[in-house]
């Protein structure tokens, strides 16, 4: 197999392509031939040493994968060899996703719908699970609600817009003006230009806000949230936001994404129905993993960046 390894933390240049023996699937695991691996901002955070949960060196970053089942270990067998699967195994522990082969817990994967290519399927897991866990599990989204999605053209945001719309909400997407057409194309009924419009200018109109930022950003979003509404963020809200929310009868929830096979299956159902389609911004060969991470950080493209082993 081929995989990306780093022996030190640092910039994209520490990512090196090496040859290695194929992994052997353990108890409850399957061996997957990786056809595509998604890139997320968290990959660069691990690479740089930003997170204290850093695996021991040397290690291989990456979690989003899509490919074909090769074999099953003891206690596994739900997916027959040849089945296309996708998932985000082991996160935030090391999974070794930037590779041509991976052994992964079968329970943390799902079958890939025919509607998605492998590159599209690899763009789904971390971002899609983040959106699902924020909107559904933490946010309790319901049909007929008015929902605001921030960073609506990003990796998580473009999937959150589609999921919220598919579940019957009226979606408002916040993004830069040049990305509004794309956001509406994913199902948003309305768009906001975050650089020019304060979300709260229209009053407390939203039942649910999905905030990709958190921190002080939560304070600026609270005026747009109805009393009794919920704001879900991917980072801790500020203390000031917490105090304001408590005083105004609003709920703040912070989520951290975790692997979840059944939730991946829900996303796959939406994909099979044509109601969830990931946007792949650019594909890079596995050997150019460093350049792919640098592109994602610098360009902030619409959708996701994917590696092809």
Report on the architecture of this protein.
The protein is built from nine helices and 15 strands. It is α/β, with parallel strands linked by helices and 309 residues long. Strands 3, 4, 5, 6, 7, 14 and 15 form a seven-stranded mixed β-sheet that branches. A six-stranded parallel β-sheet has the order 10-9-8-11-12-13, sandwiched between helices. The protein starts with a strand and ends with a strand. The longest helix has 14 residues, at 125-138. Helix 3 (125-138) packs across helix 4 (157-166). Strand 14, helix 9 (289-299) and strand 15 form a beta-alpha-beta unit. Helices cover 26% and strands 27% of the residues. The mean pLDDT is 95.
Please supply descriptive tags for the structure shown above:
globular, 2 domains, 15 strands, 309 residues, alpha/beta, Quinone Oxidoreductase, Chain A, domain 1, Rossmann fold, 6-stranded parallel sheet, 9 helices, 7-stranded mixed sheet
Summed up:
The strands form three sheets. Strands 3, 4, 5, 6, 7, 14 and 15 form a seven-stranded mixed beta sheet that branches.
List the helices and strands and how they pair.
Blueprint: E1 2-5, E2 16-19, E3 29-39, H1 41-48, E4 65-72, E5 84-87, E6 101-105, E7 109-111, H2 118-122, H3 125-138, E8 146-149, H4 157-166, E9 170-175, H5 180-185, E10 190-193, E11 206-211, H6 217-221, E12 225-233, H7 239-248, E13 251-254, H8 261-272, E14 280-285, H9 289-299, E15 304-308
Parallel strand pairs: 8-9, 8-11, 9-10, 11-12, 12-13, 14-15
Antiparallel strand pairs: 1-2, 3-4, 3-6, 3-15, 4-5, 5-7
